[in-house]
């Protein structure tokens, strides 16, 4: 128990008999504090000055009551304290803050309401280095005995959109002028490097435009532009500011620019101003080679009276979208939110997450005054239009509303960065080539033995160091148990190494934090030992590849930096959960270059925790703990929304002979096996929402994991997975699967070709987004390995689509021109060598459509090389059964590939499902392992075996590659002969066999014969089940005698034909639906071949073997069931109908702005063709170079006439097909007049018009 003597003074209130603490005073109100600004506070006798290394010693409690100098370092010794004063706008700048004592900004009972800013300085070679606890450079470090209390203003961390926000391009009446709309504005076709200059009239129409590649003539262009016009400049490329003249610089400065004198050739530069109003100028520059701003933005100039906003792009990568004029209700949109947010203020930066596959469609904006535009306290207004669609609604009972988060906090901790990346050694130079920016930010690190640490309501910006491990934005490091400590309501953005790290620490509360744009895993549970930590309500978006661990790195980076470990790279995750005994509830993984959530464990503690866990006496059994994962959301992740699979390498001989470094990912069985009090249990991942994840929404592979009451939508594959243990499985229960919702995302143009005309590629516009190819199949369930159970779920909107590439408007299309995307609800893993288990099943599922109705299928299997499918071993042995018959019309009917090996006369062909059969039979698995010959390591994975049935017409031979294992799906009550492939140079008979039968139950029997050398002396037989045999097998004299056996103890060696026969049987039935074998007892047989010519392979293909006589009752042939009607998802999924929150279903309606659009001049008349006789003729004298305009792509008669009209000229003259000049006096006479044929050069912007020639001008009146 903490006594009163241990409490800081501000926490002491009136304590007396029967009276408790009623309220906490603010820390700056503590009596006796020494003021920073008093000379007497300091042992030196004076207030610290710039570049001093400052120490607050024991016994001194200092109040920061005024702006401090720029310090070298700040150390707070044990017994000392620094308390931030209740003063607005103080900035503490230093290379580090080392806390052995106390550092307070606000308290739990008195949150700091004003602005506080801590700036951490330093480069990688900074001399201010601290070895203690490996703090090193540029940090806030809480050392042994230290206290860190940061309590910022209370603000809602994040909410959701309550109404869809459309991209600016999709909003009617959004644009007054759009430079990229070249159908309306031909000048948008001018895309050459240079200084692009546009002049707008007050209403947003274009007065003039030019592209300057010689800045020396730039100044003259502006001499006749009237006051009040708006000028936009976007310069890029090597010619953008080439030959920059003093006139160029002075012209920009006269318009209000200030940065132009610092701009170099090759830099990009944006400028916007109203002529005659220098204070209106806005500008932006980017050094050549510097990283582009993300996301791209625009300079703004608002005319509230006209309701329009002029804009110039700040990003060269925003190709050809340099200039635009918007309706101000679009330029400054209103967002309707689910909640009445607390604490959000004008000037705060917010994040609106992507609701599409690409997380980079997330956009940040600043809050501006709403004025009359807002009609509700749930509405805010922001400072720029949106480039992307952000969905804000429920769709088919799936909540796909974009998250809206606050990034600005009143306490800001910032790493001060260099403008350009630098490298002091080769490793740092490599980082620059990867990231193109300085990645040596600040870090906050809390060490074991600290006294107290609470961080709440803080913004952390440019934190984390990509250079080294352990320098993370917020980091509890090897702290053991930290009950009552927390990280809450913080905003961490644009960080360089993760977001929040929990390392060797238990019982930490991490709640309601926002993470945006970080390199490496976001929320990072580091050493696979951390337990009982709670992660609740955190939003993580923008997780990008880092370089610290193999799992952080992209496959491309590994090709150059870790070539030997490419397969161990590329598992980046927003939430990296390396121990299951942690609570994850109501978090959102809103965009990653990898996975949203990844559960992955290690066989022993990692890093320093290996030693520490031994010191603490804690054993390592992570695979025993059930998951606590509920109410979480994952969307817009490039790979999987949730990924449970694999192991973390420990870097020892335990995995792959120690070749994989620690923290690499090994794709092997994770052996996850949740238990409670010694008994196996199901772990439930419930009430989740998963959508728009690039590969699949859920990849789950582990023991007894159930997905329940979840919504799964808008992903190529909704769920796939299997088990890693012998008697466990995965189940999906009472969940909703939607193939494609109303959230179509952003339409996209793709270069595509129909399958039958691969060389005939066309650029086609799709009105929806795709994470991969438009033809990639769309499925809800990808059955894989197993057992997988799909029970009481709802499926809708799995519809096969076709696009006609010949003529988008055509009502009919030739098959050769069709591009097709196939779809179906229940399906299989598309490209796999792993065979399915025979215990996977479906039961009591509902559909929102009728099977095979207009391209909609309940079940689907793709053809080879179509939509991501391949014809591998696993794809040729797909299997599940229909437990209640609602899917197939027959109880316990099996769904298998249409292959003779599996077939029978009672099978129903379902080619509408993709070459599948519905058969009323049972199937089991037989796996063969062996020693030598075709089962040796050289041949076993290269089609070593050939199997055939004995009963006609199903005797067609069948073979698999055996890349994973030689395991075959067999129909029961049938007989088979296994032959060996004799095409291999080293082909031969194995000397030993191990055979395993999976899924064999009491009523099952399968007769198997294996081809053998003719001169075998004898066989050694060992069996564990269904009977125990130790070379005491009973040998039959005939096949009939073998077939009559019911014990499983009998074998038959057909010496005349050289075949060894036996039967697969069982004494048990399943008592657990996920058992691979009944009661965990599998048929097992070991055969040793004694003697014989093993190297002289012979074939048994032509030997006729009498088929097994099936005396069981002949089943009825399945029939296609009638449609049961259109079902609804009522009662399924995560949505609570009584708690949906505020939502607006109607589209936002925008009133149009009345604008003056430039049209044909009423007085425009052709004058004739005039010769350019010499440079000083009267026409040319009046048409000086300052009024000349050349447009290489867009010159038209209207363009030239309109610009000359706005310039105040009577005449417009066009020459060379692309040049426009203006004048007021036209000299007549025979020497000047040409014929029509002299002016026949077509205009580059309109081939139906003529724009003079090299020596002649087409002259028009302008209407002046």
Automatic annotation (TrEMBL):
Signal peptide range in chain numbering: 1-23
An example Gene Ontology CC term for this record: plasma membrane
Alphabetized InterPro entries for the sequence: CEMIP/CEMIP2, CEMIP_beta-hel_dom, CEMIP_X, G8_domain, Pectin_lyas_fold, Pectin_lyase_fold/virulence, WSC_carb-bd
4Fe-4S found in the keyword field: no
Compartments (UniProt record): Cell membrane
Spans through the membrane: none
Domain of life: Eukaryota
PROSITE patterns: G8 (PS51484), WSC (PS51212)
Residue span(s) of domain WSC: 1163-1263
Entry GO MF terms: hydrolase activity, acting on glycosyl bonds
Keywords, ordered alphabetically: Cell membrane, Glycoprotein, Glycosidase, Hydrolase, Membrane, Signal
Keyword Flavoprotein: no
Xref: Gene3D superfamilies: Single-stranded right-handed beta-helix, Pectin lyase-like (2.160.20.10)
Stretches assigned to the G8 domain: 40-163
Family: Belongs to the CEMIP family.
Protein name: G8 domain-containing protein
Source organism of this protein record: Littorina saxatilis
């Amino acid at each position: 128990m903490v006594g009163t003597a241990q409490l800081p003074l501000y926490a002491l209130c009136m304590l007396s008999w029967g009276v408790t603490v009623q309220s906490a005073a603010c820390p700056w109100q503590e009596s006796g504090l020494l003021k920073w600004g008093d000379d007497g506070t300091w042992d030196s006798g004076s207030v610290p000055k710039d570049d001093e290394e400052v120490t607050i010693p024991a016994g001194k409690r200092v109040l920061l009551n005024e702006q401090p100098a720029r310090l070298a370092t700040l150390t707070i010794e044990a017994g000392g304290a620094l308390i931030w004063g209740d003063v607005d706008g103080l900035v503490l700048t230093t290379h580090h803050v080392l806390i052995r004592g106390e550092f307070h900004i606000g308290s739990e009972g008195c949150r700091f309401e004003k602005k506080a800013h801590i700036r951490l300085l330093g480069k990688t070679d900074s001399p201010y280095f601290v070895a203690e606890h490996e703090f090193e450079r540029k940090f806030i470090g809480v050392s042994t005995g230290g206290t860190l209390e940061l309590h910022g203003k209370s603000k809602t961390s994040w909410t959701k959109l309550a109404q869809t926000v459309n991209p600016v391009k999709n909003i009617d009446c959004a644009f007054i002028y759009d430079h990229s709309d070249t159908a309306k504005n031909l000048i948008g076709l001018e895309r050459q490097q240079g200084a692009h200059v546009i002049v707008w009239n007050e209403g947003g129409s274009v007065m003039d435009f030019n592209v300057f590649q010689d800045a020396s003539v730039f100044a003259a262009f502006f001499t006749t532009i009237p006051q009040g016009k708006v000028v936009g400049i976007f310069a890029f490329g090597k010619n953008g500011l080439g030959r920059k003249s003093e006139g160029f610089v002075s012209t920009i400065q006269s318009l209000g620019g200030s940065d132009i004198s610092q701009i170099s050739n090759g830099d990009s530069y944006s400028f916007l101003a109203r002529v005659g109003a220098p204070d209106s100028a806005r500008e932006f520059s980017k050094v050549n080679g510097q990283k582009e701003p993300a996301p791209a933005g625009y300079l703004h100039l608002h005319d509230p009276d006209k309701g329009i906003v002029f804009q110039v792009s700040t990003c060269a990568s925003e190709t050809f979208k340099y200039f635009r004029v918007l309706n101000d209700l679009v330029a400054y949109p209103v967002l309707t939110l689910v909640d009445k947010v607390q604490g959000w203020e004008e000037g705060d930066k917010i994040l609106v997450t992507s609701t599409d596959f690409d997380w980079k469609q997330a956009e940040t904006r600043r809050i501006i005054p709403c004025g009359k535009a807002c009609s509700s306290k749930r509405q805010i207004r922001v400072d720029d239009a949106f480039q992307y669609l952000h969905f804000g609604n429920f769709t088919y009972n799936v909540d796909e509303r974009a998250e809206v988060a606050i990034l600005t906090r009143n306490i800001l901790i910032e790493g001060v960065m260099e403008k350009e990346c630098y490298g002091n050694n080769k490793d740092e130079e490599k980082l620059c080539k990867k990231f193109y920016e300085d990645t040596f930010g600040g870090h906050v690190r809390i060490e074991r033995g600290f006294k107290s640490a609470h961080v709440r309501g803080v913004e952390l910006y440019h934190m984390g160091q990509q250079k080294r491990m352990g320098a993370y934005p917020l980091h509890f490091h090897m702290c053991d148990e930290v009950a009552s400590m927390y990280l809450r309501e913080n905003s961490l953005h644009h960080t360089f190494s993760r977001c929040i790290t929990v390392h060797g620490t238990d019982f930490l509360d991490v709640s309601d934090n926002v993470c945006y744009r970080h390199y490496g895993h976001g929320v990072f549970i580091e050493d696979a030992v951390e337990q009982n930590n709670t992660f609740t309500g955190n939003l993580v978006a923008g997780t990008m590849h880092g370089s610290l661990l193999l799992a952080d790195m992209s496959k491309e980076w590994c090709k150059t930096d870790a070539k030997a470990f490419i397969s161990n790279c590329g598992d980046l995750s927003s939430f990296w959960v390396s121990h299951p005994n942690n609570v994850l509830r109501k978090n959102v993984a809103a965009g990653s270059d990898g996975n949203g959530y990844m559960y992955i464990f290690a066989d022993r503690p990692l890093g320093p925790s290996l030693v520490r866990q031994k010191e603490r006496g804690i054993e390592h059994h992570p695979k025993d703990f059930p998951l606590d994962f509920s109410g979480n959301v994952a969307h817009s992740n490039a790979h999987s929304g949730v990924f449970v699979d694999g192991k973390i390498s420990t870097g020892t001989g335990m995995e792959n002979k120690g070749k994989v470094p620690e923290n690499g990912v090994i794709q092997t069985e994770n052996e996850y096996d949740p238990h409670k009090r010694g008994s196996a249990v199901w772990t439930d991942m419930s009430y989740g929402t998963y959508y728009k994840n690039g590969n699949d929404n859920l990849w789950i592979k582990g023991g007894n994991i159930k997905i329940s009451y979840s919504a799964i939508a808008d992903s190529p594959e909704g769920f796939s997975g299997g088990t890693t243990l012998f008697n466990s499985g995965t189940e999906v229960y009472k969940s909703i699967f939607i193939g494609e919702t109303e959230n179509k995302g952003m339409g996209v143009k793709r270069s595509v070709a129909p399958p039958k005309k691969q060389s005939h590629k066309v650029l086609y516009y799709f009105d929806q987004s795709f994470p991969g190819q438009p033809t990639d199949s769309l499925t809800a369930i990808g059955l894989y390995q197993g057992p997988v159970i799909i029970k009481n779920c709802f499926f809708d909107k799995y519809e096969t689509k076709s696009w006609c590439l010949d003529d988008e408007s055509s009502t009919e299309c030739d098959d050769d021109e069709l591009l097709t995307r196939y779809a179906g609800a229940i399906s299989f893993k598309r490209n796999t060598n792993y065979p399915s288990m025979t215990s996977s099943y479906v039961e009591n599922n509902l559909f929102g459509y009728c099977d095979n109705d207009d391209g909609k299928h309940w079940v689907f299997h793709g053809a080879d090389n179509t939509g991501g499918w391949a014809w591998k071993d696993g794809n040729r042995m797909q299997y599940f059964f229909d437990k209640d018959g609602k899917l197939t019309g027959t109880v316990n009917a099996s769904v298998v590939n249409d292959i003779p090996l599996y077939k029978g006369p009672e099978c129903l062909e379902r080619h509408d499902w993709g070459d599948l059969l519905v058969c009323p039979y049972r199937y089991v698995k037989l796996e063969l392992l062996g020693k030598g010959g075709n089962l040796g390591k050289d041949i076993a994975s290269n089609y070593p075996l050939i199997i055939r049935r004995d009963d006609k017409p199903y005797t067609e031979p069948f073979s698999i590659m055996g890349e994973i294992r030689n395991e075959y799906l067999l129909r029961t009550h049938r007989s088979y002969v296994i032959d060996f492939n004799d095409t291999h140079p080293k082909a031969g008979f194995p000397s030993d066999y191990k055979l395993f039968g999976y899924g064999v139950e009491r009523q099952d029997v399968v007769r198997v014969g294996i081809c053998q050398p003719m001169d075998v002396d004898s066989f050694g037989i060992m069996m564990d089940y269904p009977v125990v045999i130790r070379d005491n097998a009973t040998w039959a004299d005939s096949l009939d005698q073998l077939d009559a056996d019911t014990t499983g103890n009998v074998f038959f060696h057909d010496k005349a034909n050289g075949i060894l026969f036996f039967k697969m049987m069982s004494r048990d039935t399943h008592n657990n639906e996920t058992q691979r074998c009944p009661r965990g007892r599998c048929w097992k047989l070991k055969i040793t071949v004694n003697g014989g010519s093993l190297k002289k392979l012979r074939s048994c293909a032509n030997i006729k073997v009498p088929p097994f006589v099936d005396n069981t009752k002949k089943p009825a042939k399945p029939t296609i069931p009638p449609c049961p009607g259109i079902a609804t998802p009522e009662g399924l999924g995560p949505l609570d109908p009584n708690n949906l929150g505020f939502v607006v279903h109607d589209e936002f309606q925008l009133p149009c702005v009345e604008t003056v659009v430039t049209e044909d001049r009423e007085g425009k008349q052709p004058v004739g063709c005039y010769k350019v006789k010499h440079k000083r003729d009267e026409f040319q004298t009046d048409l000086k170079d300052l009024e000349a305009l050349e447009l290489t792509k867009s010159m038209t008669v209207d363009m030239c006439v309109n610009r000359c009209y706005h310039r105040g000229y009577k005449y417009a003259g066009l020459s060379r097909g692309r040049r426009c000049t203006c004048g007021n006096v036209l000299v007549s006479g025979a020497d000047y007049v040409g014929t029509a044929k002299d002016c026949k050069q077509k205009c580059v912007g309109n081939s139906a018009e003529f724009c003079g020639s090299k020596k002649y001008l087409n002259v028009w009146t302008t209407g002046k």
